[in-house]
């Protein structure tokens, strides 16, 4: 308009036409796309293009505003008018450049995040190459299995202790997800014949130790014994093999989350809203640092961490129930608007806390799958007493339960006729006959064959997978 006012009609109409074309093109693109279409922009090449285009638009708008101002001959104004108009034009330049600068910065930050956290395809010989990451990222399969590991790498410990282990089995078409939670004290897991540890532990991991051989030791054992595993940093592969063999699933990828870095991630999205069924004491000596009161609470990162980790007045199995609720709450509440509004904080937190073997080429496909999961049905099954005893696990029974849970996840949801069940993280007590537990010197709970039912420290109804919305009140 400034060029038209200054009498430069050809230039003015050309600029106005170009603006209208770009505006119309942007509107058409925005109205004909949804969030899943935008996930393809998460690749490194696309992010580079976005940052360059955003930078070019920022400079273009700056040049347009400046030339428009000059075309109006500001030198004809008095000194005061020149100062005021110059300041206003400067503010206008910053205003029109700011959105494009934000987009360019977000693209550069995302690219840095992707390249920091995710590895290039072929860097891990244990991961099958992806033939076509665009048209067929999952190699023709209808389900993909991710191992989500919560690692406790505190400064007073050597290595990483995997205290939280959950497999998310996702239906690629629908996004329906079944989460399988395994107790950290599951003893003497077996390994598939393809694993080097199968020959080393033919009767199960550390089977000669009645109170040892815990699942949360497998990762570190694999890292500590490259001579057995066939190379360095094979802890993830050892744990994937053990858990996959236990569940009867092929674990495709893993993601390790440092529990203490998780605090920053939760704070970055503004906290998590979680229903707390009972007071949870945390931190200090025997929970003296604080108490998370019962009720629906907005938890900070530190509170969410301790809500999922505290065992004061409870046990490992109760903690597992709370952990799955934290994971479910994050999956539901990390909405696109929160991610965009706090993107830099989230990216910086993620770079510090995450380790994964998901190849960089699959990032767009994983992002698209995550959007499906957010709007899909999430169910959960925990392998805890009284149905499953970690000290004397019934491996075939576990695999049958996994198969039933996966079959149930693809069936339509039926309307419940009975009253709503308890929504505590651990569920209601099961009245089915079961073997009663005994406690070993190490604090392990094991089953006593032939004994009658005895209540566990945490009541659990874990015969079938439960909806997280139902169990956690999400």
TrEMBL record:
<feature type="region of interest" description="Disordered">
    <location>
        <begin position="417"/>
        <end position="474"/>
    </location>
</feature>
<feature type="transmembrane region" description="Helical">
    <location>
        <begin position="44"/>
        <end position="71"/>
    </location>
</feature>
<dbReference type="Pfam" id="PF03816">
    <property type="entry name" value="LytR_cpsA_psr"/>
</dbReference>
<feature type="compositionally biased region" description="Low complexity">
    <location>
        <begin position="418"/>
        <end position="455"/>
    </location>
</feature>
<feature type="domain" description="Cell envelope-related transcriptional attenuator">
    <location>
        <begin position="161"/>
        <end position="334"/>
    </location>
</feature>
<keyword id="KW-0812">Transmembrane</keyword>
<protein>
    <submittedName>
        <fullName>LCP family protein required for cell wall assembly</fullName>
    </submittedName>
</protein>
<keyword id="KW-0472">Membrane</keyword>
<comment type="similarity">
    <text>Belongs to the LytR/CpsA/Psr (LCP) family.</text>
</comment>
<dbReference type="InterPro" id="IPR050922">
    <property type="entry name" value="LytR/CpsA/Psr_CW_biosynth"/>
</dbReference>
<feature type="transmembrane region" description="Helical">
    <location>
        <begin position="83"/>
        <end position="104"/>
    </location>
</feature>
<feature type="transmembrane region" description="Helical">
    <location>
        <begin position="12"/>
        <end position="32"/>
    </location>
</feature>
<keyword id="KW-1133">Transmembrane helix</keyword>
<feature type="compositionally biased region" description="Basic and acidic residues">
    <location>
        <begin position="463"/>
        <end position="474"/>
    </location>
</feature>
<dbReference type="InterPro" id="IPR004474">
    <property type="entry name" value="LytR_CpsA_psr"/>
</dbReference>
């Amino acid at each position: 308009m400034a060029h038209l006012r200054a009498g430069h009609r050809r230039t003015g109409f050309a600029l106005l036409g170009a603006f209208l074309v770009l505006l119309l093109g942007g509107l058409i693109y925005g109205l004909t796309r949804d969030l899943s279409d935008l996930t393809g922009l998460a690749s490194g090449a696309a992010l580079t293009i976005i940052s360059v285009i955003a930078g070019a638009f920022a400079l273009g708008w700056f040049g347009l505003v400046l030339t428009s101002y000059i075309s109006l001959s500001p030198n004809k104004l008095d000194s005061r008018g020149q100062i005021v108009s110059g300041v206003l034009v400067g503010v206008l330049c910053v205003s029109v450049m700011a959105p494009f600068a934000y987009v360019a910065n977000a693209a550069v930050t995302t690219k840095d995040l992707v390249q920091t956290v995710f590895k290039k395809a072929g860097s891990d010989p244990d991961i099958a190459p992806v033939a076509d990451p665009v048209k067929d990222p999952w190699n023709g399969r209808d389900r993909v299995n991710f191992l989500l590991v919560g690692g406790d790498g505190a400064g007073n410990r050597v290595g990483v202790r995997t205290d939280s282990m959950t497999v998310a089995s996702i239906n690629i078409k629908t996004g329906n997800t079944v989460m399988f939670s395994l107790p950290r004290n599951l003893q003497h897991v077996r390994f598939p014949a393809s694993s080097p540890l199968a020959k080393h532990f033919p009767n199960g991991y550390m089977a000669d130790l009645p109170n040892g051989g815990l699942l949360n030791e497998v990762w570190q054992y694999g890292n500590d014994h490259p001579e057995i595993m066939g190379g360095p940093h094979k802890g993830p592969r050892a744990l994937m093999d053990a858990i996959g063999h236990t569940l009867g699933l092929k674990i495709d990828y893993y993601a390790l989350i440092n529990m203490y870095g998780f605090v920053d991630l939760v704070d970055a999205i503004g906290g998590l809203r979680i229903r707390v069924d009972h007071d949870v004491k945390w931190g200090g000596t025997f929970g003296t640092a604080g108490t998370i009161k019962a009720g629906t609470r907005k938890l900070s990162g530190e509170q969410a961490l301790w809500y999922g980790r505290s065992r004061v007045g409870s046990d490992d199995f109760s903690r597992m129930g709370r952990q799955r609720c934290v994971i479910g709450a994050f999956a539901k509440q990390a909405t696109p608007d929160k991610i965009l509004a706090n993107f830099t904080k989230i990216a910086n937190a993620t770079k510090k806390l995450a380790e994964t073997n998901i190849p960089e080429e699959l990032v767009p496909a994983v992002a698209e799958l995550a959007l499906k999961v957010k709007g899909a049905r999430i169910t959960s099954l925990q392998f805890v007493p009284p149905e499953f005893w970690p000290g004397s696990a019934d491996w075939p029974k576990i695999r049958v339960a996994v198969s039933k849970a996966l079959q149930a996840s693809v069936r339509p949801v039926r309307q419940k006729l009975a009253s709503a069940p308890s929504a505590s993280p651990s569920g209601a007590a099961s009245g089915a006959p079961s073997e009663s537990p005994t406690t070993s010197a190490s604090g392990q709970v094991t089953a006593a064959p032939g004994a009658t039912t005895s209540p566990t420290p945490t009541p659990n109804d874990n015969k079938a997978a439960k909806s997280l919305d139902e169990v956690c009140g999400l």
